[in-house]
Amino acid sequence: MLSRLTRPRALAVCALPVVALLATAAFAPLPFTLTQPGLTANVLGENRGEPVITISGAPTRKTSGQLRMTTIEATSPDTTVRLGDVIDAWFRTDQAVMPRDSVYPSGQSVREIERFNTRQMKESQDDATEAALNYLDLDDKDVEVTLRLADVGGPSAGLLFSLGIVDKLEGDGSGGDLTGGRTIAGTGTIDPAGKVGAVGGVSLKTQAARRDGATVFLVPKDECGDAKAELPKGLRLIPVTTLEGAVDALDALRTGEGTVPAC
User: Fold this and answer.
1) What is the CA radius of gyration of the chain?
2) pLDDT at 23
3) Which residues partner with 54 through β-bridges?
4) Where does the record place the Lon proteolytic domain (predicted)?
5) On the CB side of 51, how many CA atoms lie within 13 Å of its CA?
6) How far apart are CA 134 and CA 192, in angstroms?
7) N or C: where does the chain have the smaller number of CB atoms within 10 Å of the terminal CB?
8) 8 Å CB contact between 157 and 185
C-alpha cells in the first residue's frame, strides 16, 4: 500500500538536507583569515624607545617629516573563522577576507609561522640595507646599519627601510629631506638591486596610512588597481618599481619639478 505526501510536507522533507547543509556551513571552520588595517611605524623615528634605524661608520643627518611603513593585522593561524565572520567582513571596507594559505604558510604550527615571519623580516632588512648602500655607492664594510622594529614580521617594509637609510645618510642630496616635511607612507618588498615588489593587502594599508596622518602613499606599480579600490580621501598614490624611481618621485613631489608618477 502506497501513501502520498502532501506538497507542503514533501517540500519540507526535501528542504531538510539543505537546512542541515547550511547549518553545518554556518558553524564549520573555514580556511580563511580576516584582515584589517594594522599599525604603521615611522622608520625615521623610534620604536619602543629605540631608533628604528641606527647607522655607524658614516655621518648621519637629522630628518624632518615621516616615512611610515604600513602593516595589516590578521587573525592568528589557529583562529576559527566561520561563515558568519566571512559574510560580515565581505560587506565592510575596513576588513578583508583572504585565503589562510596566502597569509600563513600551510602545514606549520603557530610557532613555526612566527619564526618564518621573523626570518622574512630579517632578510628584508638585510636586502633593504644593501639596496640603500648600493644606491649611495657606499661599502657595507665601512657602514653598519641596524634596523629594529618590534612585533612586525614579513618582507613588506623593505622599500621604506631603504628610503629611511637614504634619508638619514644623504637626504635629497642638497641638505634637505626626502619627505619635504610630509608624512609619507608606503609598502613594498625590495631586493639588493633596488627592485620593488608587490606585497598584498594594499587597500587596507592605505587606510592605516591615512589614519596615521599620511598624505602620500608609495605603492608597488603592479598593485595600483588594488590601492585605488578603497583609497581614502586625501591620500595621493605614487607608483614605484625601484628605489631610484621612488627617490626621483619624492624629489619631483618636493620641488615641483618634473613629473610625479600617478596610478
Assistant:
1) 24
2) 44
3) 146
4) 153-237
5) 13
6) 8
7) N
8) no
List all residues 6 or more positions away from 54 whose beta carbon is below 8 Å from its beta carbon: 145, 146, 147, 148
The upper half-sphere exposure of residue 14, i.e. CA atoms within 13 Å in the direction of its Cβ, equals: 7
Residue 95 lies in a domain: no
Of the candidates 26, 4, 24, which has an alpha carbon nearest to the alpha carbon of residue 13?
4
Least confident range from 4-18, 80-94, 96-110: namely 4-18
Q: For residue 21, which amino acid is it? A: L
Q: pTM for the whole thing?
A: 0.83
Q: Helix or strand or coil: residue 16?
A: helix
DSSP 80: -
Q: How many angstroms separate the CA atoms of 171 and 178, rounded?
A: 5
Q: Which domain range does residue 151 map to?
A: 37-75+105-255
The pLDDT score that the predictor gives to residue 230 is: 87
Q: What distance in Å separates the CA atoms of residue 68 and residue 42, rounded to the nearest whole number?
A: 4
Residue 161, in any domain of the structure = yes
Q: Are strands 183-186 and 216-220 parallel, antiparallel or unpaired?
A: parallel
- pLDDT, average across residues 229-238: 95
In whole angstroms, give the CA distance from residue 93 to residue 175: 41
Residue 225 is given by DSSP the state H
- Distance between CA atoms of 160 and 173, rounded to whole angstroms? 18
Cell numbers 592568528 correspond to 76
**Identity (one letter) of the amino acid at 8?**
P
Answer whether 160's CB lies under 8 Å from 191's CB: no
